[in-house]
Amino acid sequence: MKRLVYSKLISWKNNTKHKPLIILGARQVGKTYILKEFGTKEFESMVYVNCHRDTFAKQLFRDLNVVRITKELERYFDTTIVPGKTLVVFDEIQEVENGIASLKYFCEDMHSLHVAVAGSLLGISIRENESYPVGKVQTLHMFPMSFIEFLMARGKNGMVETLTELNWDMMSAQHEPLIELMREYFFVGGMPEAVADYCENQNPTTVRQIQSEILDAYQRDIAKHTKNMAQRIRMVWDNIPAQLARENKKFIFGAVRKGGRAADFELALQWLAEAGIITQVSRAKSVALPLKFYADPSAFKVYMLDCGLLACMAGANPNDMLLGTNAFVEFKGAFTENYILQQLCSTLGRDNIYYFAKDNSTQEIDFLVQTQARTLPIEVKATVNVKSKSLSTFINNDHADQGLKGLRCSLLPYADQDWMENIPLYAAETYFQQYAEYV
Questions:
Q1: Beta strand pairing call for 138-141 and 295-304
Q2: Predicted local confidence at residue 119, as pLDDT
């Protein structure tokens, strides 16, 4: 399946000053697949080491002599590693001691060799007694498949072209089919195994089974890596659908456990966020830049990394999601907000995404995104009913002197109202993509 991150891998390969590459991402988002595809297509040879399965890897990093490491790889795989022509891949790098630390010396002592590593953030983020090679590596974040990638997997290349060009007239002509496909995406999500199965079999039952297995794997990882915190992490994890079902989606610690406080669960939240399986969106108290200066760490919302996994966790009925408009309004629009955040992450990354809420007021802007080109105040509407005063008051009254233009994502076709653009939900990813170079 085609992944948009592939073009970034090509840029890394062609950069004469490349550093070792770390692909970061939650488990099962497609890191191994894309590296193998990249190595096979773009290099004359590839040396692939699975640091979890291959016992050879356990002693490979016994010291940080990368010349020795490379020679042992050549002997073990009976091949010649040629800088510029060979890609060396260390998968599940978190499973071996000194694996991550060795990248500093690949950068310093064998800088012409292309070395790429992948691993679950569940392991890399908590690797103890091992220094991270700050400044010596390039990092690339992978997320679940975006809506555009889902459409490509479904063979809808014409629709992909329409969306990529932001051709609003053509979108209007294809409005209903695009909504149907977006409904499928809400249910299937972007985990590659689930997408591949759905494209081949169109069977909601097997998709849900795959999603359940992924969630079970996350649960096992929680137990494996956090023996002392596992119970609290599970409590937070299991409570996410209920948090998103609330009208005000601000995370409430007391909803996790009666009488619960930040001190009880903030480390559990931090662990889940660093693992990449949730995204924490903090409140911005001001629209002044940079937004990070005005982030309120005591107020935030929590979303799942994937809308399909959210549907599975919530036990949403497949028929309700795939038929009619229930997928968009279920859980008070939680799936729709999670979907928009997922497209934001895949295009602009997880940094610089906030939400805005006034003290002692019901006014709230679902997402507030900072780019160098523009600050995006985003309102998410799950249906064609878009009546709301929050965005209009925010743009035209409270911040009229800042020259902001609002963005509303809804089921309505494109419209430009001067102070605000309405874009259809299915065009969110490609709309955000125009700001990717300004992040």
A1: unpaired
A2: 80
Classify residue 352 by its DSSP letter: T
Rounded Cα gap, residues 365 and 355, in angstroms: 6
Q: What is the pLDDT of residue 341?
A: 98
pLDDT value of position 127: 54
Residue-wise pLDDT tens digits, 142-169: 999 999 999 999 999 999 999 999 999 9
Q: What is the DSSP letter of 28?
A: T
**Distance set, CA 346 to CA 116, 275, 332 (Å):** 20, 16, 24
Nearest to 211 by CA among 299, 305, 310, 292: 310
Tokens of 282: 């903090």
Q: pLDDT value at position 257?
A: 94
Beta bridge partners of 90: 49, 117
**In the block, residue with structure tokens 């849900």:** 208
Whether a cis peptide bond, with omega within 30° of 0, leads into 290 is yes
Can you say whether the dihedral through the CA atoms of 158, 164, 170, 171 is positive or negative? positive
- Three-state secondary structure call for residue 315: coil
Q: Does residue 238 surpass a pLDDT of 90? A: yes
Question: Average per-residue pLDDT in the chain?
Answer: 93
Q: How many C-beta atoms lie closer than 10 Å to residue 286's C-beta?
A: 12
Nearest to 207 by CA among 218, 228, 220, 192: 192
Q: Are 365 and 379 in contact (CB under 8 A)?
A: yes
CA neighbor of 387 nearest in space, from 408, 406, 358, 417? 408
**H or E element: which one contains 140?**
strand 138-141
Gap between the terminal Cα atoms of the chain: 27
Exposure class string for 109-121: b at 16+ Cβ within 10 A, else e: ebeebbbbbbbbb
> Cα(52)–Cα(92) distance, rounded to whole angstroms?
6
Structural contact between residues 335 and 325, judged by C-beta atoms closer than 8 angstroms: no
Report yes or no: 152 and 2 within 8 Å, Cβ to Cβ: yes
The residues, any chain, with a CB within 8 Å of residue 59's CB and separated by 6 or more, are none
Helices (H) and strands (E) in the chain, counts: 19, 13
Measured CA to CA, the distance from residue 98 to residue 104 in angstroms comes to: 10
Residue 325's CB is within 10 A of a number of other CB atoms, namely 15
Residue 237 and residue 275 in contact, taking contact as beta carbons nearer than 8 Å:
no
170 exposure class (CB count in 10 Å sphere: 0-12, 13-18, 19+): middle
Structure tokens at 224: 């494996």
